[in-house]
UniProtKB/TrEMBL annotation:
Pfam families: HpcH_HpaI
SUPFAM superfamilies named in the record: Phosphoenolpyruvate/pyruvate domain
Species annotation: Rhodococcus opacus (strain B4)
Protein name as annotated: Aldolase
UniProt entry keywords in alphabetical sequence: Lyase, Metal-binding
Length: 263
């Protein structure tokens, strides 16, 4: 089976960079897969598209070396199974507030014996190889999102769920749940919550990932020892790059005018 290079990178102690696709254009997904990211995640929860487009985006990501993952819209085993059948090598599941929901999610990612995933990996076989079924359970990465005060209160039970590979922190929803403003830099309560999640995951020997909105918060997450960091989505990366190019053009024009002197 095609190896999961993201899992291998994190196991070696490297910090993985994860891209995030919120738009429906396959060109952006393909470009980011070739940009040096370790993985590219298709956002089916908040992305402006459905599962048909998600499959096309997975195909686009597969053209490059990045590992394809999907944030599902929830813990529905039918949806998760379909995404895995389409070739996703990782599932990030939102709204995991307790161990029961987490266990159901993990079960949806694994074949009978350890889970309830139904057989039918049509594209999974094309992407993963003919021995896909024999190795899928140990190749696919199952991430449970921690993004609420309720999840924090059940944190020790969630991270103890058998077969869970990692927890993925959603700092914006977590901020709202803690009565803080989302976006921008992490407030003290949110930062303390992130540290709690990291410590709980480390005690269980599972991975920790998180979304962040910029370079400063990305550096904070790396300093805290996270295994995977998502430095914004495709739209924010495009906007930031455009803003910098525009500033360079306008700044150069201003400088050129100032240096031109008078007559």
């Amino acid at each position: 089976m095609r190896p999961n290079l993201l899992r291998a990178a994190m196991a070696d102690g490297n910090v993985a960079a994860n891209a995030w696709i919120s738009s429906s254009g396959t060109y952006a997904a393909e470009a980011l897969s070739h940009a040096g990211f370790d993985s590219v995640t298709i956002d089916l929860q908040h992305g402006m598209f459905g599962i048909d487009t998600a499959v096309a985006l997975l195909q686009a990501v597969s053209s490059g070396p990045a590992v394809p993952m999907v944030r599902s819209s929830g813990a529905d085993p039918a949806e998760i199974g379909k995404l895995l059948d389409a070739g996703a090598y990782g599932i990030i599941c939102p709204s995991i507030d307790d161990a029961v929901t987490c266990a159901d999610f993990v079960s949806a990612c694994r074949y009978p014996g350890v889970g309830v995933r139904s057989f039918g990996p049509s594209r999974g076989l094309l992407y993963g190889g003919p021995d896909y079924v024999a190795h899928a359970d140990t190749t696919v990465v199952a991430w449970a999102m921690i993004e609420s005060a309720t999840a924090l209160s059940n944190l020790d039970e969630i991270v103890a769920v058998d077969g869970l590979d990692g927890v993925y922190i959603g700092p914006n929803d977590l901020a709202l749940s803690l009565g803080e403003r989302p976006g921008g830099s992490f407030s003290e309560p949110v930062l303390e919550a992130i540290v709690r999640v990291v410590e709980a995951a480390r005690r269980r020997g599972i991975y920790v990932g998180a979304f962040c909105g910029g370079e400063e918060t990305a550096r904070q997450l790396v300093d805290l020892g996270l295994d995977l960091v998502t430095p914004g989505n495709d739209i924010s990366l495009l906007r930031d790059a455009a803003t910098r190019r525009i500033a360079a053009i306008r700044g150069h024009r201003t400088l050129a005018t100032a240096n031109a002197g008078g007559y």
